[in-house]
Amino acid sequence: MGRGDLSDEEWARLEPHSPANRGQGGRWQCHRRVINGILFRQRTGLPRRELPSRFGKWKTVHDRHRRWSADGTGERIPPAVQADADAEGRIDWSMGSVDSTACRAHQHAAGASTRAHSGPEDFRSAKETGASSLRRGPGTLARRAHLQDPPRRGGRAPPARVCHHARPVGDAPQMIPVLEEIRVPRQAGGRPRTRPDHVGGDKAYSSRRNRRHLPRRQIKHTIPEPRDQRANRQRRGSKGGRPTGFGKTIYQRRNEVERAINRLKTFRAIATRYDKRAYVFHGTVTAGAIRLWLRPG
Q1: Packed helices 278-294 and 58-70: angle between N→C axes, nearest 10 degrees
Q2: Tens digit of pLDDT for each residue in 11-55?
Q3: Whether the Cβ atoms of residue 157 and residue 151 lie closer than 8 Å to each other
Q4: Which of 62, 98, 117, 151 would give a disulfide with 157, using CB separation of 3.0 to 4.6 Å?
């Protein structure tokens, strides 16, 4: 086992949720070796052609990662891994935070073909297909990732869900879509867990829409009100509504999502985007989140 590879304990957690081996002749053998190759490239950020030979053919690692990123396999594994953590009491649902970070794209991430493709990309929606490649221009070599995390108990905070958008997209409109992505199944049966008890966010997530939506879902929130919104509310008098509540003590826990971002960006292929396609980069970030959830403690 090399540095950064899955340990026997981590593989035992992941193996039940890995794709089944289908097809005549067992074409999907050695899942563990391929996944270790994906994680090695994710951790180091090196070109896929430079993968060490102990992971097998580089094209096998790349094709399987691309296919799993496109056909939904990468989206099905995180809830299953989180369900195991939730059953063991390793998820703290009392407080969840949302934040965003900019992922600078390398110049090699630009230039992907915009023509139609056949294969696993067909699983993507038309909207996702149109935003899958980067074009050169001011402010285009960057993506914005929005994270929401009910942290693991003990202070170590892997993200629960990650969504990607183009850089010009504001933070406030993405808060509700990110929260709606949370779905942690219960091993004992019943409806999956979809919301934390409390949500924290910075001033960028302050909007009337967000403040109305969270109470409807019975979610308490701590989001500071920007100065311009406060002045506008006071100018309107009684029509502006009541002042928003703010607790400084519980707001301090928002650093948990910032620590989650820092932990994700220890992977070089996440801190800098090298993937030409957005769905492949999303699969890279999802693999990083899975890697953090598999670590014990």
Answers
A1: 90
A2: 999 988 888 766 555 566 678 999 999 999 999 999 999 999 999
A3: yes
A4: 151
Tell how far CA 244 is from the center of its chain: 29
User: Which residues make Cβ contacts (< 8 Å) with residue 246, sequence separation at least 6?
Assistant: 222, 223, 224, 225
Distance CA 102, CA 151 (A): 21
Check whether 167 has a pLDDT greater than 70.
no
Please tell me the pTM assigned to this model. 0.83
Which helix (H) or strand (E) segment holds residue 74: the answer is helix 73-87
Between CA 67 and CA 74, with CA 73 as vertex, the angle to 5 degrees is: 90
DSSP 189: S
Residue whose C-alpha is closest to residue 161's, from 193, 203, 121: 193
Q: Residue 248 and residue 79: Cα distance in Å, rounded? A: 31
Q: Which contiguous run of DSSP H or E holds residue 255?
A: helix 255-264
Complete DSSP assignment for 115-171: S---SGGGGS-HHHHHTSSB--STTTSEEEEEEEE-PBTTS----SEEEEEETTS-S
C-beta separation of 53 from 31 below 8 A: no
